[in-house]
Amino acid sequence: MAGSEIGKFVEMMFSLPAMKAPVKFEMKKSVKLVFVISRLIERGLAPGGSADPVLDLLSAEDIEELQQAKREMLEKVDLLDLNEKLKAFSK
Known about the structure:
- The protein is mainly alpha-helical.
- The protein has a domain at 30-91.
- 64% of the residues lie in helices and 0% in strands.
- The chain has helices at residues 3-14, 31-45, 53-56, 60-76, 80-89.
- The longest helix has 17 residues, at 60-76.
- It is globular.
């Protein structure tokens, strides 16, 4: 499938009512993996951070929800402050 076809398919899929249904799941991963996942979310949401057409279709609300999920993950493993310090060093 070409990029534009994927985009159209994903837009159609995102418009289905079931895609807005809340889902609760439990994730038991190492602190290291949680930190890496948070960095991947951050990189994917950064301007020009992803060439993925699916990420380009995210609404501002979806992006905010992902950022909040990232923050909650880091808070649960007590790495929120460390992550902020690392971001400051990388500037």
